[in-house]
Write a sequence for this structure.
């Protein structure tokens, strides 16, 4: 088998490398065996002054320096080479070596740093304690400094002479007291059943006995009517009773639907020069009671102040059951 005789030479337009082409390769696309760039093979002009060489040396030189014939390649991008893969890979991490002197001196330095910061906390606590002690001593010193007296301003309220409240007037049962706009009198006190009424029954008796106190009011004005305020819920009652040892005798409330017969209704009018009786009901006083004191708030008929009425218990009548 004989080798084909080369017919010409070609040169790479990129790296200017020259090589021998076999027959039939002119005009075809090939890849430079040296730089790898594809190009169209064109026939190169032969060298006009070739250097004469010996046949054996020429044959040896051609066999040594003749590159491999170019191969036709497609237009796809060249495959990745090992160098490109190596360049694309991330560089290996460097191993950090700690010198021996760092281990020798590093541990004591870290210990000293920790001790320094811990010592700072202790120093901070000592400084705070010192500041507190200084503050206490300064407070003591300021308290011991005599301060000049402040000038006193006149206070008309404090400098005014104290006027004692007028004593509460007292009367006995059966006596009349003049309250200015009206007069009031406690006519009687009894222990017995109470006549009541509601929206169904105009009059019925209570099942238990109670203390009944009858008062008589008379309007002194010949033109102006007086309005009875009565005992309002959640307010201080206008009629209060205590016994001789200061026990409170509780007033009785039969509810909103039941009314006491003989009691003035709330907002009732006391017409000019007219008299009205009013009945107040209390619990039965404790045994051995010797005296009762009824306190009347004169504001019940737009009066002023209070009135106390002494009721000896021996004057309290007991009704037959």
């Amino acid at each position: 088998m004989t080798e084909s005789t080369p017919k010409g030479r070609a040169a790479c337009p990129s790296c200017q490398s020259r090589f021998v082409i076999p027959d039939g390769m002119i005009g075809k696309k090939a890849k430079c065996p040296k730089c790898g760039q594809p190009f169209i093979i064109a026939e190169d002009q032969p060298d006009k002054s070739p250097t004469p060489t010996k046949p054996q040396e020429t044959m040896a030189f051609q066999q040594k320096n003749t590159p491999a014939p170019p191969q036709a390649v497609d237009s796809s991008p060249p495959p990745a080479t090992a160098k490109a893969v190596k360049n694309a890979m991330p560089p290996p991490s460097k191993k950090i070596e700690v010198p021996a002197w760092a281990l020798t001196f590093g541990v004591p330095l870290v210990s000293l740093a920790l001790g320094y910061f811990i010592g700072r906390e202790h120093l901070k606590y000592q400084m705070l304690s010192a500041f507190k002690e200084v503050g206490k001593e300064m407070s003591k010193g300021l308290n011991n400094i005599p301060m000049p007296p402040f000038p006193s301003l006149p206070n008309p309220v404090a400098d005014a002479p104290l006027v004692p409240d007028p004593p509460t007037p007292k009367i006995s049962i059966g006596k009349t007291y003049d309250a200015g706009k009206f007069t009031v009198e406690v006519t009687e006190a009894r222990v017995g059943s109470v006549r009541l009424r509601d929206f169904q029954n105009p009059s019925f008796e209570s099942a238990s006995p109670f203390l009944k106190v009858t008062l008589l009011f008379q309007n002194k004005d010949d033109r102006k009517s007086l309005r009875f305020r009565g005992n309002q819920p959640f307010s201080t009652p206008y009629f209060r009773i205590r016994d001789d040892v200061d026990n409170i005798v509780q007033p009785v409330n039969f509810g909103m639907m039941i009314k006491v017969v003989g009691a003035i209704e709330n907002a009732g009018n006391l017409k000019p020069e007219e008299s009205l009786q009013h009945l107040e009901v209390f619990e039965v006083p404790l045994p051995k009671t010797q005296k009762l004191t009824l306190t009347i708030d004169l504001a019940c008929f737009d009066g002023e102040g209070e009135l106390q009425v002494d009721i000896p218990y021996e004057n309290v009548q007991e009704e037959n059951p």
The longest helix spans residues 100-144. Residues 170-318 form a domain with the Immunoglobulin-like fold (CATH 2.60.40.1240). The first strand starts at residue 8 and ends at 11.
